[in-house]
Fold this protein.
Amino acid sequence: MNAALDAQKFDALVNRLEATSGLYPILALAGCTALFGAAQTAGASGFLAVYLAGLILGGHRHRATQVINQAFDAFAWLSQIVLFLMLGLLVTPSALVPILAPSFVIAAALMLVARPVAVALCLLPFRYIVPEIAFISWVGLRGAVPIFLAIIPVLAGLPDATIFFGVAFIVVLISLILQGWTVAAAARMFDLDVPPLQQASRLDIDLPGRLGDENTVAGYRVEARCLAVSKAVEALPLPLTASVLVVIRDGIARSAASAPPLAPGDYLLALARPGDLAQLDRVFGQRSRVDDRGLLGEFAFDGTTALAAIAHLYDPTAATDGAVTLAELVARRFGGTPAVGDRTRFGAVELIVRDMQGDEITQVGVELDPASKQAWRSWFQLLLQRLRWNNRGRWTLRHSVSETERRQE
C-alpha cells in the first residue's frame, strides 16, 4: 500500500515538473532507486515495490512517457549485455565437457517432463485447450536468470558449486538452441501461428494540463504497406473520438479537409484519446507480408455480415438466425473471449478471427480447404479431437468443432 501511494505521488510529481526531456528518464530512475531503498530499509521487498510502482505508473498517463520508455529500454539492453559479459567470464569450456551427458539428461527431463506437467497443472483449471498447453510447455525458454542464480553457490563457496553452474549453463544453451529455433515451427504444428503485430512509426506529443489527461497528439509517418495508403483522410477507419489535424507532404502542411489521398512518406498529426492509439497504429502501421500467405484465410468477410447470407454456401445444415452475424457466431463459439487467429469449423470451411477492435471481431477470414493444408498434421489433429473438452468456459485460441457436432454433443 505504501509503495502504491509513493508511486502515485511520483506520478503526480512527474506531471507537475517542468524539465528538459532528457531529465525525465533520470528522474524516473532516481525515483525507482529511492523506492527500492526505502522498501528494503523498511523490511519489505524492494523488487516488489518497484514492480507495483511500474504497474501504477503504466496505468496512468504522465509526461514524457515515450522518452522514459525509450531510455529504460536502452537501460534494459545495456543491463543484459553487462550480465552476459559477466557470465561469459565465469565459463571455462573445458570444465563443461565432463558434465555434458548428465546435463543433456537434465535438459530433456525439464523440457519434456517437468515443464509440461507443471504447465498443465497450472492451466487446466482455466480450461486451456491441449494445443495451447503443449505450445506454452515448449516455449519455456531458459535465459540469463537461471545462470545468474547458479552463480550464488559459486560466490558462497559451496562444495561442487562449479558443477551446478556448469549444468545450468548447458541447460540454458540447449533450451535457447533447440526451443528458441523451433518456436515458429511449434506454432505452425499446433496451428497457433498468427501474423505479427503491425508496427507504426508514432511520436507522442505531450499536452499540458487536464487536456493531456484526456487527449494526446500523435505523429505518424504513413508506411508503404498500411491501410491508410491511397485513402482520403475522411475515408480512414478512425475511432469516433480521433481526428487528423494536419497532413505534411514535401514540407507543406495541409488541413485534413484539403489534403490529397495519403501516400507513403506523408506525415500527419492526429488528436486522439489514449485508448485510440492502438487503432491508429493499426491504420498507419506497416502490415506484415505474412498476410499474403493466407495465414488467416484466403479472403475475409466483415464481422457484421449476416450468417444467413453465407450459410447456404458453406454449411447448409446450420441453424441460422437472420439477426446473427459472423462476429457473433465466432464469439459464441469461443465463449465470448476470442482472439486474432482463433478458428472454428463451419461446414466444409474454417472461420478465422482475422481482425479485432477491442473485444469486437471486425473481420472473419475463410479457409476454403483446411483439410488439404493441414494434411501433414492430421494425426495430431485427430489426437487433439480425442482430448478436447466438450464444454469450455474460456477460449483463447482455436478449435475445430462444427456447429452440427456441437449440437450433437
Observations:
- The longest strand covers residues 349-357.
- Residues 375-409 have pLDDT under 50 and may be disordered.
